[in-house]
Amino acid sequence: xxxxxxxxxxxxxxxxxxxxxxxxxxxxxxxxxxxxxxxxxxxxxxxxxxxxxxxxxxxxxxxxxxxxxxxxxxxxxxxxxxxxxxxxxxxxxxxxxxxxxxxxxxxxxxxxxxxxxxxxxxxxxxxxxxxxxxxxxxxxxxxxxxxxxxxxxxxxxxxxxxxxxxxxxxxxxxxxxxxxxxxxxxxxxxxxxxxxxxxxxxxxxxxxxxxxxxxxxxxxxxxxxxxxxxxxxxxxxxxxxxxxxxxxxxxxxxxxxxxxxxxxxxxxxxxxxxxxxxxxxxxxxxxxxxxxxxxxxxxxxxxxxxxxxxxxxxxxxxxxxxxxxxxxxxxxxxxxxxxxxxxxxxxxxxxxxxxxxxxxxxxxxxxxxxxxxxxxxxxxxxxxxxxxxxxxxxxxxxxxxxxxxxxxxxxx
Length: 412
Hints:
Helix content is 72%, strand content 0%. The chain has 18 helices and no strands. The longest helix has 29 residues, at 68-96.
């Protein structure tokens, strides 16, 4: 059975559970909430380890082909440019929707201080005091471990003869971790039942109240236009006027998993399989482009964060939505996306906290206005992030390594 069919079935059962189960089961520490958290953890159990093993192997192989710097620089330039464009689209979409106000609430009053994600702490987390800290780090070890993987790959490329035996070890680990990741993606349909049920219940409460309905509809419509309009148009021209929809179809399982869970890392393991098994991109190239995309290619996070920020600013005052503030917002949001993506999950709420902390002038706690819709924002953002990273990875890797798109009937 195709993965997207399994995931669709899991989402349908999850939606039914959200409708019929009592609210007490979704409270913190209750049965559905615990099952949802366990499902998310099982979903991304091996994802970071798989990337951390594949990255040095990919750097080593690409360096031997004299293609590493070309691949990484091309990927960085492409994904950074796309994040800037997505931020501009989000601002334009919010302005086109017309004036609308979000409930600021008592905790989002003017002048209150707010924690800023993406400040100095993530910088220090990138470089722990010793390598042993990577094994005992209690938080998300994605960024420091991947940075070490990059350094390890470059060191291996410096002395290829000595690195060959270790490269064989990494290749074996990669195959083992990939097997675990394959198993996780196959049972993801079951895991999506509690995860999607919890996400649907969390989203339905603020949306049913009406206060956030306009923002929810704008983001949903924007996501639909981007995925089925702008992205196919881009693929059509960059891929020699070929049919772009098989690329989107290959990313469908990851799109469904991210939309139903609101968690990027939960569904990113599925994208690893789709890029390799459907789009035909070899591991030696996909790992570099995927890591760069996860760090700098968060177009969904940029779109959602910029649009939400405009809604929040207009909630304070129409004067806050000035051309200067919009220009500043278009530059700060991509910076926030990169800063908060160091931990891989990141998300719009981290970007909004970063943005309003930079804005200051009484806006520091403005991001709190979007807290009730946090799961929905993450769902829209992670869906767009994953599909963009997935369809662009073959082109960022270069023509020689772009792989061969498999027939649709053989898609996983």
